[in-house]
Amino acid sequence: MSDWIISTITEWGYVGIFMLMVAENVFPPIPSELIMPFAGFAAANGQLNGLGVLLAGSAGSLFGTMLWYFAARLLGLKRFHALCNKLGRVATITERDIDMAVDWFARYGVWAVLIGRLIPAIRTLISVPAGLAAMPFWKFLGISAIGTLAWTAILTGAGYVLHEGYHIVEAWVDPVSTGVVVLAVVIYIYRFVTWKPIKDIG
User: Fold this and answer.
1) Matching PANTHER family, A to Z (predicted)?
2) Among 94, 96, 125, which residue's Cα sits nearest to residue 112?
């Protein structure tokens, strides 16, 4: 994958960075931890402009995360309820779980989005509860932009400073991403095994 990312940035420049960051947010296994540091390295070598790299990466990331937001917003809470009820054990969540999560998000949504955009693997997923909770779009976009610019700037700056050692960033951040994913899978398996419909509880 790294060769594909590098060749895309080398051949397509800012457009390539934008497209890769869109893809990274739609399909999280594509790592921004490699995309932006290499783009920063290219800027350090004079192949690209540092500000252009930052703007292209941030714009692509925001566009990708908006797709998840609108998908969740269009699905809506009632249809999401119905879908989870239909899937039952596979969904591992009940209407009560969903309502509690939405209530929590209504109280702490701003911080959830801001901090979530700085956490690998969570960066994309945080758009879904934002959409389901009907967080106002402009509010979601503004908060996401702050978090996205910060994350993109950190990765771009690391690649710029490290030059040929840009891949070191991936070596540090990738275990965190993997850890988050593994934790999510463990929690899902636990909930899948112990799940009971509400009517069976108590």
Assistant:
1) ALKALINE PHOSPHATASE LIKE PROTEIN, UNDECAPRENYL PHOSPHATE TRANSPORTER A
2) 125
d(CA 93, CA 107): 21
Whole-prediction pTM value? 0.77
Q: How far apart are CA 165 and CA 45, in angstroms?
A: 13
List, in sequence order, the alpha helices (H) in the chain: 2-26, 32-44, 50-87, 95-116, 122-125, 127-132, 137-162, 167-194
Q: State the average pLDDT for the chain.
A: 82
Provide the pLDDT for residue 74.
Answer: 93
Over residues 66-111, the pLDDT tens digits come to: 999 999 999 888 888 888 777 767 767 777 777 877 788 878 888 9
**Is pLDDT larger for residue 94 or for residue 129?**
129
d(CA 71, CA 26): 11
47-70 burial: b if 16+ Cβ within 10 Å, else e: ebebeebbbbbbbbbbebbbebbe
CA distance 15 to 83: 37
- Of the candidates 149, 144, 132, the residue with the CA atom closest to the CA atom of residue 58: 149
Taking alpha carbons only, the member of 128, 119, 74 closest to residue 101 is 128
